[in-house]
Amino acid sequence: MEITLRPYELSDRTALEEIFMMNTPKYFDPKELGDFLEYLDIFGDDYVVAVVDRRIVGGGGYWVRSFDQQGGLSWAFVHPDFQGTGVGKELALYRIDQIRQSGVAKTILVETSQHSFGFYEKLGFKLLNRQIDYWAKGIDLYSAVLEL
């Protein structure tokens, strides 16, 4: 399976919205969809989509702040049919590499849930803290950091 990663384009919005909803309510609260779409409107330049056989199968954002030398990963998800196939890992590693190449960040933050924390832990992220029912009832906040 060949995975292509490319910058987000406005024409990707509907496919990403559909995949987001496929990951609801396990990974996201339905009320978060508006926040995600607003994120794309504002920060779409730093959003990456994963494509397999000309089909969008996932996406994820990243950011870098110079004032505190921190980078971060945001709004990542993969189509349920492609979870466990390496798409998410390739998407995460690509974004980590983009942050590393900036030469600015010394750490990378991810704020995720109990459902995805193990994935990031395997990539070397260390748990900073946890908050029960933060995103929604039954979806906890796991803040984790990767030292560069």
UniProtKB/TrEMBL annotation:
Domain named N-acetyltransferase: residues: 3-148
The UniProt record lists the keyword rRNA processing: no
GO molecular function: acyltransferase activity, transferring groups other than amino-acyl groups
Record SUPFAM superfamilies: Acyl-CoA N-acyltransferases (Nat) (SSF55729)
Name under which the protein is recorded: Ribosomal protein S18 acetylase RimI-like enzyme
Native species: Runella defluvii
Family matches, as Pfam families: Acetyltransf_1 (PF00583)
Annotated keywords: Ribonucleoprotein, Ribosomal protein
GO cellular component: ribosome
InterPro entries assigned: Acyl_CoA_acyltransferase, GNAT_dom
